[in-house]
Amino acid sequence: MKKNVINVGLLGLGTVGSGVVKILLEHKDSISRKINAHLLIKSILVRSFGKERDLVIDRELLVNEPIKIINDPEIDIVVEVLGGVEPARTIILKAIENGKHIVTANKELMANYGKEILEAADQFGVDVYFEASVGGGIPIIHPLKESLAANKISKVMGIVNGTTNYILTKMAEDGCSFEKALKQAQALGYAEKDPKADIEGEDAAAKIAILASIAFNARVTAKDVYTEGVSKITFEDITYAEELDYVIKLIALAKDDGNGIDVRVHPAMIPKTHPLASVKDVYNAIFVEGDSVGEVMFFGKGAGSLPTASSIVGDMIDIARNLQQGRSGIIGCTCFEQKRIKSINEITSCYYLLMDVIDQPGVLAKIAKAFGDHKVSINSVIQKQSRGINADLMFMTHQVCESNLRDAIKEIKRLAVVNKINNVIRVETS
Amino acid sequence: MKKNVINVGLLGLGTVGSGVVKILLEHKDSISRKINAHLLIKSILVRSFGKERDLVIDRELLVNEPIKIINDPEIDIVVEVLGGVEPARTIILKAIENGKHIVTANKELMANYGKEILEAADQFGVDVYFEASVGGGIPIIHPLKESLAANKISKVMGIVNGTTNYILTKMAEDGCSFEKALKQAQALGYAEKDPKADIEGEDAAAKIAILASIAFNARVTAKDVYTEGVSKITFEDITYAEELDYVIKLIALAKDDGNGIDVRVHPAMIPKTHPLASVKDVYNAIFVEGDSVGEVMFFGKGAGSLPTASSIVGDMIDIARNLQQGRSGIIGCTCFEQKRIKSINEITSCYYLLMDVIDQPGVLAKIAKAFGDHKVSINSVIQKQSRGINADLMFMTHQVCESNLRDAIKEIKRLAVVNKINNVIRVETS
């Protein structure tokens, strides 16, 4: 039953794909000892044969048609690092049909078509592992499915996008604008030329959809996630947060209180004493709250060639160990429940609001009345500064229902004494 | 092949054992769906049938002889929460011989007899899982063996003993003595009546031996670990550490630089900005440094009934999933290398030294000469306070070899101007 060689077909040789090749070369011997076989890359799908590469790779391994990998009967494991839904989805489904085990780093695919992929894996009796799709090198998907499987998970919350965390860290530490911090991130390769997926929260939304699906044993897709990005965060917000002993982070959050799943990505103010507050630059951290374990946190590099490849090769080793036992598909899809997704209007949160108002007696009373009329209870209010006839008012609310807050804001906007609501940011204290 | 019922024999019904029973009862349905079978406790080994218990347990489940569990052909998984080496070792070996899969929380057993147990498991083709033996509810052993398997691990460092961490936190926050903090810990149930194993570092030594064995793929036993406890830490040390922006923690550390394994447990000063500095009370945190993944950290409750039981039931679910596939023993012992253990004299570290000296000109020169003669390079020196004819001198060294430091200390102790060396504490900056 045991094999001497386990053959791998690699789809893609970009940043992450190169990392996979590098680790397999450098750790050839120790990996062989762990799986009692050689883990060999047999073919690599690339777009161009002629491209200059840092890695020394046997040209004979390169192929330019996926079919040469997924139809190769000698290939046991297909590793997909192409990214994006298509053609990855079609290729992976075909590979599964052909009995190949899959390792993928593709969050978009798993967050949108996870059900289809995992059901196909179940049907054809193969493993699909995707540890690298969330949190780069941080082990989080396996722990959620395995070591923490004895828990009813009530909450998953984390910083899962390195690009925006780098930008927010820079804004806070260097006092620069969002635009300047974004340019720095791009110069360092932390942000893409078209940074939309990162800064608008789409990347984080895909990741929290994957985590929520596993944590709550119910399918959550990327489109279920209420998503706001970081582009509206100003240096002013960061300064005010700082004064209140808070920091602003792009938070991905999923809660299950038994009445539905609250799943969202948005900037949030969190207390400086919160462990997520000290997660800086491109690091990621994910908190999990379970009824037995309490709070556990996982921290590390959420992206990059080698950290991501670390998770991919870890998954390949897992599959290889399974293959050596002549079995597979131990876990598969764990979404055996159906749960309702809450609308953003149903959630409750504390909120920070910054308003530009006319600096005259009675203004606060009018705004406070509007809040009160909509059951929005105020925790604190600070008049930040007077600028001639105008002033900045900053409110922090208690836990209130988002729909009530939105109604109050509508009414406040109509008040003649309010020039503008500069920003509304949710506050996560626990 | 698939079973409808997987039967469990539980050895021990103390704090952790009761937690296991509680989780299995409360999460009966969700666990059944995860493993497509019922996970049933068939027998529980107890010392006394008559004891009052918080749990409602069918008296017919209770047995008082281990043989009734390990010889029961219907029992698939034996869960050991007795603690201590014997009789746990003998019972587990016998259970393995009888084809039972094992889940244990027993750090003493695994740190001292891990090789014997895992080799027996290999011989008889069963699984032995021990996630709960380190870090309570924190997933760390599985991630090290699986998701991080693609890494060459160079370092594991953490806070793995909640009792001492609670004591050190109390001393720092309330400004109390070691003795008072220990009494508080005992009153809260965080420390045992005989607290030796915790405060002298033995518990942490067993845990780091287990982690080092897995991280470095080479057997490290508890007796290989250089161990110092926290009982000599004074409030004075904590105050001086605070002034220097450091905190004192009981650190368990293992490094592999290719020339041998440096493995030790001792109090250490760590910078306040270090992520371990903010790990308070009974929480644990473990850092792992791998060549591909960089730094990853795992954080959570390191002890307690339910957190520890969370890891145990997680392991039971893993084994049950394996059983449903008709296989076992995928990973087994991963110590396929032999590595030398370094003696404490070979290690290098920075050190904090507090001395009580005669307050007169030339004293510093004499001490500095003794350091210099033994190649101990001083980073900073602060005269802390003058008390009439005596004064406190505090030194921080650069990275130096421990044997050189020890030689320097011997010589300094002989100086007539030095009344006493109050304390020497290693400093871990990264």
Mind explaining what this structure looks like?
The structure is a homodimer of 430-residue chains. Chain A has 430 residues and is an alpha/beta fold. The first copy, chain A, has three domains: 5-136 and 305-324, NAD(P)-binding Rossmann-like Domain (Rossmann fold, 3-Layer(aba) Sandwich); 141-301, Dihydrodipicolinate Reductase, domain 2, CATH 3.30.360.10; 345-427, Alpha-Beta Plaits (2-Layer Sandwich), CATH 3.30.70. Chain A is 35% helix and 27% strand. Chain A has 14 helices and 17 strands. In chain A, strands 7, 8, 9, 10, 11, 12, 13, 14, 15, 16 and 17 form an eleven-stranded mixed β-sheet that branches. A six-stranded parallel β-sheet of chain A has the order 3-2-1-4-5-6, with helices on both faces. The termini of chain A are far apart. At the A-B interface, helix 1, helix 2, strand 12 and helix 12 of A face helix 1, helix 2, strand 12 and helix 12 of B.
* Number of spatially distinct domains of chain A: 3
**Poorly predicted residue ranges of chain A:** none
How would you characterize the largest beta sheet of chain A? Answer: 11 strands, mixed
Which structural class best describes the helix and strand composition of chain A? alpha/beta
What is the CATH third-level topology name of the largest domain in chain A?
A: Dihydrodipicolinate Reductase, domain 2
Q: Tell me the distance between the termini of chain A.
A: 51 Å
Oligomer: homodimer
Estimate the mean pLDDT confidence of chain A: 94
Shape of chain A: elongated
Strand content of chain A: 25-35%
What is the helix fraction of residues of chain A, given as a range?
A: 25-40%
